[in-house]
From TrEMBL:
Keywords for the protein's UniProt record, in alphabetical order: Membrane, Signal, Transmembrane, Transmembrane helix
Keyword Cytoplasm tagged: no
Transmembrane segments: 72-92, 99-117, 145-164, 171-193
Signal peptide, first to last residue: 1-21
Name assigned to this protein: DUF2231 domain-containing protein
Keyword Transcription: no
Length: 214
């Protein structure tokens, strides 16, 4: 019964987290940081080209219509890593091997999603301001921390399952690592939202290099 309750809570978390993340970054156009006029002019043309390429009568876009798949993939990483951290904290009380295996699966998918979002599907930028470059550096730094700590957490989880047999002290160490990874992915998401909603990088391909649509 307790195991089912934990799984239901994890499902609710996975549904609610993306919604809360988007609600926390509502900004007006007046809040956007203005770049120099040459950059604005250059990206206006690119923005227009992208808009023309889309079929205005088509409601559901194809994957190829997006300038980059990074936002679609990275949300899996954000949700799954945070859910894994919450489940690990709960399992410190329950000490259920079944839940430990579920956490391992969730964490594996989350780390893979974070890796793909940061490596294979990371868009290249051009013509952005110095301030935006600084924000991008922070975003990439915390994304790297997320991946590195996530991989360490996953390895510790595997060692715990096969060698320590879900000992509470070992699970506590993993929980701390997962909390750190969760904080890192939250910070990476914060800077990512700042890049999109304040710096205007990404919507309809603005400031993204052509040829990097993956």
């Amino acid at each position: 019964m307790k195991t089912r309750l934990v799984l239901v809570m994890a499902l609710l978390l996975s549904i609610s987290m993306p919604t809360e993340a988007h609600q926390g970054h509502k900004n007006n156009a007046q809040d956007s940081i203005v770049t120099n006029p040459e950059q604005v002019h250059g990206d206006t043309a690119h923005h227009h080209d992208g808009a023309v390429a889309n079929n205005p009568s088509k409601v559901t876009a194809d994957l190829g219509d997006f300038p980059t798949l990074h936002p679609l993939i990275v949300h899996f990483a954000i949700v799954l890593i945070m859910v894994a951290a919450v489940l690990q904290l709960l399992n410190l009380i329950l000490i259920k091997k079944e839940i430990a295996w579920i956490i391992t699966g969730i964490l594996l998918i989350g780390v893979l999603a974070a890796w793909m979002a940061g490596r294979n599907f990371h868009p290249h930028t051009h013509g952005i301001s110095d301030h935006a470059k600084s924000v991008l550096e922070q975003h990439d730094t915390w994304a790297d921390w997320t991946i590195n700590i996530g991989v360490i957490s996953l390895l510790l989880q595997v060692v715990n399952l096969f060698f320590f047999k879900t000992k509470r002290w070992a699970m506590a160490v993993i929980a701390m690592a997962l909390v750190l990874s969760g904080c890192s992915v939250a910070l990476a998401g914060h800077y990512g939202a700042q890049l999109v909603h304040l710096e205007g990088i990404g919507p309809q391909g603005k400031y993204l290099e052509k040829g990097h649509h993956h």
